Amino acid sequence: MMLDPAFLSQSIAHRGLHTGSRTRPENSLSAFDAAVMFGFGIELDVQLTADDQAIVFHDYDLQRLLSQPGTVQTTPAAQIQNARILGANEGPPLLGQVLSSVGGRVPILIELKDQSGTHTGTNGKLEAAVVKELAQYKGPVAVMSFNPDQIIVMRRIAPDVPRGIVSGPFADDKWGMIPTDRRNYLREGAFIDEAGIDFISHKFSDLTADLVAREKSKGRKTLTWTIRSEQDEITARQIADNITFENYLPSS
Question: Which backbone phi and psi does 43 adopt, to 5 degrees?
Fold first, then answer.
């Protein structure tokens, strides 16, 4: 399945067009509404709750965003939704609520979060929950993950949904909890053909990596994350086909 052209023509707002504060918090319906109003695409994160609901939430634990103990995967959806994101007057939405709100007006890039902490393996429950929500959705949508096993599952259960891999250098300082051989595997991207990847979303500071050049030579599209200034956007667009951005407004 080819990536919809909208993913290349509309800059993509990272976790929605948020303000990083309670006025319009990340991964919130208000942030997604703002992205639609400005004509930007939307990037969002999806995890599975304790009762197997696909909820839009970035962090594995609830403390930073909801000031609560616990993790997403051990907490029921209703409890998460009843909390307030960064003290705002709204809670985290379910994926289905976001899809209904956006209604196909802008492209939606869904990052499937790996809840194991190792970026390997999957029980398939999150992927199945996402596919269920996407079954009747008509707008441009694509899925991606740092964990290739999740994308391989998506290829099997939803072959018509465009798939991407989130890639980068996987440096020790942030990714040390993942075994070295697994980090090398992720960095090199040897799984990309097996997973039937349509695009990569690569870290901005690492755009000169061999993986990027290799996949571009094969005709795969390249997105990049996360752009936070006009100057970085200019630099990124020399290599990448489109950007995921936050904290400023790109020109398109």
Answer: -110, 135
Which SS3 state, helix, strand or coil, does residue 61 take? Answer: strand
Do 200 and 194 contact (CB within 8 A), yes or no?
no
Per the structure block, which two tokens stand in for 233?
């956007």
Task: Give percent above pLDDT 90 in the chain.
Answer: 91
Report d(CA 80, CA 68) in Å as an integer: 9
Closest CA to 163 of 99, 116, 220, 119: 220
Which residue type sits at 83?
Answer: A
pLDDT greater than 70 at residue 85: yes
Residue 69: Cβ within 10 Å count:
9
pLDDT at 1: 62
Pairing of strands 242-245, 221-227: parallel
